[in-house]
Design brief:
Elements: H1 2-43, H2 52-89
Length: 90
Amino acid sequence: MQEEANLLALADRTLWVTALIVGPVLLSALLVGLVVGIIQAATSVNEQTLTFVPKLAIVAVVFVVLGGTMMALLGDFLREIFAQIALVAA
């Protein structure tokens, strides 16, 4: 029973870490895509490739600004997982 609780806690933590890492990137790309889409609709410009460059730029900016924090979060999570693996193996 304890192993199942540990596994569920690990799965929950994994989902939270994943959401915290990819959330800012996806939300920023979504917002930029929405803004560009509204501008395209307002100006009747129907070019599908027009949204690619702004999305790519904002994703790069988000990685530059939050990349260190994301990597620190991921590093802490990996250390936690490896510590739990060592406890199970012992």
